[in-house]
C-alpha cells in the first residue's frame, strides 16, 4: 500500500506527463487536495498544469521516492505511446491498402465499394517476431488456385514463432514469375488459413506480403494486422492461390482484414 508521500510523487509525475491526470483523480488525490482546488469544478488544462508545477517543492522532500518510481512512470508512458503509434501505423497501412484498389486497373472494387471493407482493431499482440530458416535449393512447385491455372512458387523460408502461447510454423514463398519483374524481385508471399476462415474472415484464407529485406539476423517480423483478402473474396474471375495445408494455423487470428461487408456474386 502506498503512503501519502509515495502517492504524491506518482501523481505529480503523472500530472506533468499528462495534465488531465488531476481531472481523473479529482478529490481522491492528496496532491489535488493540497492544490487548494478541492471542490472546484474547473477542469481546464491550464488549471491542471498550474496545479502540477505549483507543488514542485514536494519533489525536494521526496527525492528518494522519485528515483524509485521515475522509471516505472516512464515505462507506463512509453507503453501508451507505443500503443498509439502502432494504431497509427496500421491505420496508415490500411489507407494505402484501400488506395491501391483504385490504382489497380484489374481491381475488383470501385471507390464506392471501399466502405464495405472490414478490419479487426489493430492489436500489437499479433505483431510477432519469427525465427527464420531460409531454405537452400528448395524445389519449385505449382501452388493450386481456386479457379484457373496455378502459378509456380519456391519455398523461401520456414518461420517459427509463438502466438497466444502456442508454438506455430508457416512457410513463406517466392513467386518465380514475379521475381523476374523489376520492382518485385524481392517480393515474398505468405498465405495462411486459421480458425476464423468462413466465419469472420474469408473462407479461402488470407495473405501477408513480405520482402527479402525484412529478414535480419535470422528473424523476421510477421504482422497479422496486415493480413488481407485475395481478390477472390470480392469477385469471381480471379486466380487466387490456395494456402498450402502446411500453412494452416490451429487458432483464431483475430487481426487483419475481415469478410467483405457486401454480398459477393460468384
Account of the 3D structure:
This protein is of the alpha+beta class. It folds into two domains: 75 residues, no CATH class; 130 residues, no CATH class. Helix content is 30%, strand content 19%. The strands form two sheets. Strands 1, 2, 3, 4 and 7 form a five-stranded antiparallel β-sheet that branches. Strands 5-6 form a two-stranded antiparallel ribbon. Helix 1 runs parallel beside helix 6.
Please indicate the percent range of residues in DSSP E strands (runs of 2 or more): 15-25%
How many structural domains? 2
Output the structural class.
Answer: alpha+beta
What does the largest sheet look like? 5 strands, antiparallel
- Level of helix content? 25-40%
Taken in chain order, the helices and strands follow as HHHHHHEEEEEEE
- Number of separate strands: 7
Shape: globular
Estimate the mean pLDDT confidence.
Answer: 79
Task: Note poorly predicted spans.
Answer: 12-56, 69-81
- The count of helical stretches stands at 6
C-alpha termini separation: 63 Å
- The value of Rg in angstroms is 26 Å
List the helices and strands and how they pair.
Elements (H helix, E strand, L loop, with lengths): L3 H14 L3 H5 L4 H5 L10 H10 L2 H5 L1 H41 L23 E8 L6 E3 L7 E13 L2 E10 L11 E6 L13 E6 L7 E5 L43
Antiparallel strand pairs: 1-3, 1-7, 2-3, 3-4, 5-6
Helix pairs in contact: 1-4, 1-6
Essential attributes:
single chain, alpha+beta, 2 domains, 5-stranded antiparallel sheet, 30% helix
Amino acid at each position: 500500500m502506498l503512503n501519502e508521500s509515495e502517492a504524491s510523487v506518482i501523481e505529480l509525475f503523472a500530472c506533468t506527463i499528462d495534465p488531465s491526470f488531476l481531472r481523473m483523480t479529482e478529490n481522491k488525490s492528496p496532491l489535488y487536495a493540497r492544490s487548494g482546488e478541492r471542490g472546484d469544478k474547473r477542469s481546464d488544462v491550464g488549471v491542471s498544469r498550474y496545479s502540477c508545477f505549483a507543488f514542485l517543492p514536494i519533489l525536494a522532500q521526496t527525492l528518494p521516492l522519485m528515483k524509485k518510481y521515475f522509471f516505472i512512470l516512464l515505462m507506463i508512458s512509453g507503453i501508451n505511446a507505443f500503443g498509439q503509434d502502432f494504431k497509427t501505423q496500421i491505420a496508415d497501412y490500411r489507407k494505402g491498402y484501400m488506395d491501391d484498389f483504385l490504382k489497380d486497373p484489374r481491381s475488383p472494387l470501385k471507390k464506392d465499394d471501399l466502405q464495405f471493407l472490414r478490419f479487426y482493431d489493430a492489436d500489437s499482440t499479433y505483431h510477432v517476431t519469427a525465427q527464420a530458416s531460409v531454405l537452400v535449393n528448395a524445389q519449385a512447385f505449382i501452388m493450386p488456385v481456386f479457379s484457373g491455372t496455378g502459378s509456380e512458387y519456391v519455398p523461401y523460408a520456414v518461420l517459427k514463432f509463438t502466438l497466444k502461447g502456442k508454438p506455430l510454423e508457416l512457410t513463406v514463398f517466392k513467386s518465380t514469375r514475379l521475381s523476374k519483374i523489376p520492382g518485385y524481385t524481392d517480393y515474398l508471399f505468405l498465405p495462411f488459413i486459421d480458425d476464423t476462415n468462413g466465419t469472420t474472415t474469408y473462407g479461402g484464407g488470407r495473405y501477408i506480403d513480405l520482402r527479402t529485406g525484412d529478414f535480419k539476423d535470422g528473424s523476421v517480423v510477421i504482422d497479422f494486422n496486415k493480413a488481407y483478402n485475395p481478390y477472390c473474396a470480392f469477385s469471381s474471375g480471379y486466380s487466387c492461390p490456395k494456402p498450402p495445408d502446411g500453412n494452416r494455423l490451429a487458432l483464431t487470428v483475430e487481426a487483419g482484414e475481415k469478410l467483405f461487408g457486401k454480398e459477393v456474386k460468384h
